[in-house]
């Protein structure tokens, strides 16, 4: 059985790519939702319908942020620690 390993360079590049994408997503979230709130204000305020977009997209954005900044790949050390815990 062969084991595929990913170099540290590739792991770091992937992590940086996710972080850069997340930053772009945050900017898009802010710009688009500001536009929607502007439309809501021009329409006479009333029911705050942009809240649905803010909330739904915001939850997805939080999940992407968690993935980009806090989730890490499983390392060999993690695997060895788990193997020793089960004994």
Characterization of the model:
There is one protein chain. It is built from three helices and no strands. With 87 residues, it is mainly α. It has one domain (10-85). α1 (8-42) runs antiparallel to α2 (50-69). The radius of gyration is 20 Å and the shape is elongated. The protein starts with 7 loop residues before the first helix and ends with a helix.
Helix-strand blueprint:
Layout: H1 8-42, H2 50-69, H3 76-85
Helix pairs in contact: 1-2
Features:
single chain; mainly alpha; 0% strand; elongated; 2TM domain-containing protein; transmembrane; membrane; 2TM_dom; transmembrane helix
Summarize this entry quickly.
The chain is mostly helical and 87 residues long. The protein has 3 helices and no strands.
The amount of beta strand, in percent, is under 5%
Provide mean pLDDT, rounded. 90
Low-confidence stretches: none
- Rg, nearest Å: 20 Å
Structural class label? mainly alpha
Question: Helix and strand succession?
Answer: HHH
Helix percentage range: over 70%
- Globular, elongated, flat, extended or rod-shaped: what is the shape? elongated
- The CA-CA distance between the termini, in Å, is 24 Å
The tally of structural domains comes to 1
The helix count comes to: 3
Question: What is the number of beta strands?
Answer: 0
**Biggest sheet overview:** none
């Amino acid at each position: 059985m062969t084991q595929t390993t990913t170099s540290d360079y590739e792991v770091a590049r992937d992590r940086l790519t996710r972080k850069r994408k997340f930053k772009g997503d945050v900017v898009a979230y802010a710009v688009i939702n500001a536009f929607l709130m502007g439309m809501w204000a021009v329409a006479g305020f009333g029911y705050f319908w942009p809240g649905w977009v803010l909330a739904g997209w915001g939850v997805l954005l939080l999940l992407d942020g968690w993935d980009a900044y806090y989730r890490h790949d499983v390392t060999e050390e993690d695997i060895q620690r788990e193997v020793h815990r089960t004994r």
